[in-house]
């Protein structure tokens, strides 16, 4: 930010409300270095810089990266409802590449976004071009490896990421990407070969530990690592990691939802604290609709409620839990029926009554 102030003092404009494009651009890069909450401000700054210098390659690249991050984050864990023509990130990535066609990072980012829209042929061509452009660039490597993993080419992705580690071993992102690759191998090979599954889990733990050492606020890595320690019955270490993730600076709703799914799974499968599992699955359920994580929360809450109702048909909390799931899934009439049944079990429960009244108002 000192650089921004210095540039503004060095190159004053005719109006105090109008800044030089370099000032807008540097502000954009500064915001982009912060958390997701500043992506919108970064986008605005780059757009203001481009109003003054529309052909500048740096500001076009900055806007493309900011839009890529915001769009990727908003769609994480869910199928996109946009058409490819509506993707602002894809439009701006193409625009930036018209000005600088040899930018391997932008090429690989565009490939990842195109793959989301099933445009695999062009995406593959872009990946090959990016690797030819600058094969030793670790930023390109990590995006290419992510693309390959998403396409199921896990071993090829691992090879690329291991090569990148030889060049830059201090990247939390690369260690996290490697852990995700080994996690994929653990899942696919666990049923047929238990020893192989254990080997891949140890690799996951190793790389996730390195990731959180390098970036202690890396919530995605902390939550995955906590669950893996839960699998190994190291419950104290797992709880430490989940607590560390919970105390990290505010993250996006998609990351929060991911965290609550993982913490819920830890309590559901490993600590056997059902009340804690319900708490985290409920928080995850209510954060973002239509995501894979929300579906997982709904599925687990349904399992818990159904199991309790097998033991006791008049279990009010279990019926209310099913009502909450039905409401979150958009089935409000079913939710009303379930909350009515919950009230039959506990007629003085203000929480059930409040939820029921709210649903009835929404239906009329």
UniProtKB/TrEMBL annotation:
Gene3D superfamilies per the UniProt record, alphabetical: Tetratricopeptide repeat domain (1.25.40.10)
SUPFAM superfamilies: TPR-like (SSF48452)
Protein name: Interferon-induced protein with tetratricopeptide repeats 5-like
TPR repeat positions: 316-349
Translocase keyword on record: no
UniProt key word Repeat: yes
GO aspect biological process, one term: defense response to virus
Keywords tagged on the record: Repeat, TPR repeat
GO cellular component: cytosol
Stored SMART domains: TPR
InterPro entries listed in its UniProt record: TPR-like_helical_dom_sf, TPR_rpt
PANTHER family: INTERFERON-INDUCED PROTEIN WITH TETRATRICOPEPTIDE REPEATS, INTERFERON-INDUCED PROTEIN WITH TETRATRICOPEPTIDE REPEATS-RELATED
One Pfam family recorded for the sequence: TPR_16
Family affiliation: Belongs to the IFIT family.
Residues spanning the signal sequence: none
